[in-house]
């Protein structure tokens, strides 16, 4: 795939930002292959993402950063630039349920997901063989009510050891300790099996059956210290009827979960998601 | 349209119910044009709806009721039979917003909704001309914090006067008093502009914007004494993005609201909805 | 609503276009409230749409055009700039079916569609009262196999007389003569009641029933001289089942038709649609 | 899972069919857990599917068949009864593309698809390792323009050898010879990567890009001798935009393809699909 740089910017809205950025790029012959802007009126913030062909620029990322810094400073930008040829390093966390993990592994295996998968960490050993078939390291870190600090220290150590950029909770089913959420803010993605904010917490399909809703859903979001309350990246739903039991919902929900997680993860990996407050801008 | 009887049954599940009912019908040469069954395992209840060509039976509804009564009693049935040529009488209640009202009026005017519309009751006078163009009586019953008992007595009187079977809150925006909800249980349909149980109560689109959801929704449900908590008939959603303001959500939501309400109302009018507990069976 | 200018550009792709345009705008203190770009690789074309707050610029549209002309010329642009406070003038054409017409009239009446509706032209007189209730002129121009040249000359005369920008075939059911299509290329919008290219031509729901499809659809497109083959603006579908008769499809299809037409028309009115070849770029 | 018998019936519509069948069942204490009927007016045909708890009946399938035969004969039924504990035997056929095959294998591995997978036959060797990890026999039967009769004789032999009930073309990309289609009519399921009847034949995503459609789709259907023209089981679509290249469509389409195929296959395996003429009744 063609190598592109992705320039992602958040700053207070003002006249002339696009001109400054596009002048900088065109001044260096940068070929913009995709551009997205968003001016958020309520917050007065401006968001921007550009994809630039790497081979159109006369310098590398490091020099880009140096040269662009004055503009960034002038506009009060929170910004980053990434290289599509330096894919993010992802740690997948799972439990016993295989559907989300298998889906991500297959997409990665088919070159559909632009990332490296550093390892899988699971609190059960069930999925080891599936993971190892993909030549990905599998770490079994059991979690029980008595060993949590130790277990999560191990998890934290593995994330560090693999220098992971991103952690994906592929139906991990354990609540991460606050400090882990905090340290990796905006970099841990969870899939929750309900259309949040409905049915947060445990057993959402049972809650949905109890309430008699006519659609079930799934939500992909960044993890924060507050359970199931982080910035939402994507959501989708599936129609159900009175004939569907909780077991049917679990089965039908799996397809929604894995599709929503794959979509959200893809956008994250391509730097299409910008967190602002407790919401996201998604330049999909 | 062909005249049909609709036989709608709820009873404890047991072997032989379908046989009893279908024997009764075939014994009288009844031609079943549509049949739906549902055995609900958790509650041990059985639900059934048959459409029978009226002209295939040698008797009228009254005699049907007499002859069927022994079977109904034997099986402990909660049942009703209705005649497609005796459409339900509907009272529409509205406020200032026209989209749901205009949609229902147009569907009725185009012979798409099998009902009579007895009148429109509104707490503002804005929509009078639209209603009267359809040759439907319009009653302006203003509601304010100080006149509620009197206003709702008037509403209640109008519903009685028109002998209405069904009341539709087409974005009425006022909370009905508990006794009205109670008297017309299972016969008052509301459209709420959120995907319940998320964002019950006031200003759901503002709540949705605040939470940063990626889909907005609408819910059609029977009204009970608990606000926005009655049995859900239908729901649907519409995709939004970070670019959509609350005003955009309001606009996009209108289409979901009117489609969900029209669908739910149609099913109600055709006796396709059976309430059980706080849920519905919908033989759509 | 805030007054904005909409600058819509097509030109051969090259480095520096965005810089030139945004320099021009920021050089005059133009406040961009929305921006969309698309570089189409296969054709080597670049498409761009900017919304600029009118009150942020020190000049009017005419002067904008004069000042911008050199940049447009330099880049080989096909471009236009429009003013949100000069809404397009729309002629609606209908037959007997009311659903699309009623839907557009109601949206317009509710200030949801940013346009003037100049008049309705229909080849039957059925919908006169509905149109006149909205205080919109209604012209009955009957079309039959023998009077087509005369009838369409009258239609053409009316479009001229009202200085209409846009013609909407709201289930008009007559084929326009080629010269009319040609004269108003990119300005006549049709709704076809199938998911094109399937089921072009007459009685698409019958064709769909015959084929046994599981989804029916509708397509909003610009009219060209080739029947149902013009550039597609929007499409959508609705799920059906074996139980749905052709009559059910017609009924269910109406909702898809009117929603797709309303969405496509709205995008057209806001200058969000750019035709390239036989396709469209839609900056929705 | 609870053992059920599935009684599936097609016959000319008449009064009393349901009564006869339900009398038979209730006369033997049969507990119906799910029942679906459909009277197709245009063809005058009646379709019925009952699920009956196996342990509620005092006899086995063979005796059921003997006892039910008189009723079947009287009503001119085309019928079958199957046992949920004798899952169908499925042969999967694939080429190089893994997404549909991997999806079916994972669902089967997770006990989501009620079938045995007898083997995978592929005309390339690429997917051998994935298949063998699941402990399923993999047969590489290369097909080229010169060896077709021999290759398909081998395929045919394998299907016989494994006594397969059902053949699934999981993006097999080869056209089966007419006699194979004929011998296994109603038992070969294909996934075509377009919303049929649009874009039959080769390279449907290229055709879709050429036409500029705004939704892409997939169709699961029974294979007949006419390419992509057999009875449709299920279809679905995914929204695209001008930004999506053919490569994007291929990627987005994969999710639609695998979901539609999995859904259609599931319905087939549970005897929920009845072919009538070139259409299907699907009791989903």
TrEMBL record, chains A, B, C, D:
Keyword set, alphabetical order: Hydrolase, One-carbon metabolism, Purine biosynthesis
EC number: 3.5.1.10
Official protein name in the record: Formyltetrahydrofolate deformylase
NCBIfam families: PRK06027.1, PurU
Residue ranges occupied by any ACT domain in the UniProt entry: 6-86
InterPro entries: ACT-like_dom_sf, ACT_dom, Formyl-FH4-Hydrolase_C, Formyl_transf_N, Formyl_transf_N_sf, PurU, PurU_ACT
Gene3D superfamilies the UniProt entry points to: 3.30.70.260, Formyl transferase, N-terminal domain
Reactions listed under catalytic activity: (6R)-10-formyltetrahydrofolate + H2O = (6S)-5,6,7,8-tetrahydrofolate + formate + H(+)
Protein family per UniProt: Belongs to the PurU family.
Annotated metabolic or biological route of this protein: Purine metabolism; IMP biosynthesis via de novo pathway; formate from 10-formyl-5,6,7,8-tetrahydrofolate: step 1/1
Taxonomic lineage: Bacteria, Pseudomonadati, Pseudomonadota, Gammaproteobacteria, Oceanospirillales
Job description of the protein: Catalyzes the hydrolysis of 10-formyltetrahydrofolate (formyl-FH4) to formate and tetrahydrofolate (FH4).
Active site positions: 228
Signal peptide: none
PANTHER family in the cross-refs: FORMYLTETRAHYDROFOLATE DEFORMYLASE, FORMYLTETRAHYDROFOLATE DEFORMYLASE 2, MITOCHONDRIAL
């Amino acid at each position: 795939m063609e190598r592109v740089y992705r320039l992602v910017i958040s700053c207070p809205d003002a006249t002339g930002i696009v001109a400054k950025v596009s002048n900088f790029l065109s001044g260096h012959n940068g070929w913009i292959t995709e551009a997205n802007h968003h001016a958020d009126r309520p917050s007065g913030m401006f968001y921007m993402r550009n994809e630039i062909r790497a081979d159109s620029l006369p310098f590398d990322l490091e020099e880009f950063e140096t040269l662009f810094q004055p503009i960034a400073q002038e506009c009060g930008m929170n910004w980053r630039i990434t290289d599509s040829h330096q894919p993010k390093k992802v740690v997948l966390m799972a439990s016993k349920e295989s559907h989300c993990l298998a889906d991500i592994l297959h997409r990665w295996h088919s070159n559909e997901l632009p990332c490296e998968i550093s390892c899988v960490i699971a609190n059960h050993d069930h999925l080891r063989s599936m993971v190892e078939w993909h030549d990905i390291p599998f770490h079994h870190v059991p979690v029980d009510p008595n060993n949590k600090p130790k277990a999560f220290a191990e998890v934290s150590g593995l994330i560090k050891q693999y220098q992971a950029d991103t952690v994906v909770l592929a139906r991990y089913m354990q609540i991460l300790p606050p400090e882990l959420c905090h340290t990796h803010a905006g970099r841990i993605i969870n899939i929750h099996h309900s259309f949040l904010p409905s049915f947060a917490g445990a057993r959402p399909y049972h809650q949905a059956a109890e309430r008699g809703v006519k659609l079930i859903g799934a939500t992909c979001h960044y993890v924060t210290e507050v359970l199931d309350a982080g910035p939402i990246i994507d959501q989708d739903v599936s129609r159900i009827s009175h004939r569907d039991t909780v077991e049917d919902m679990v089965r039908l929900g799996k397809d929604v979960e894995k599709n929503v997680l794959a979509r959200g993860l893809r956008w994250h990996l391509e730097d299409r998601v910008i967190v602002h407050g407790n919401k996201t801008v998604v330049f999909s």
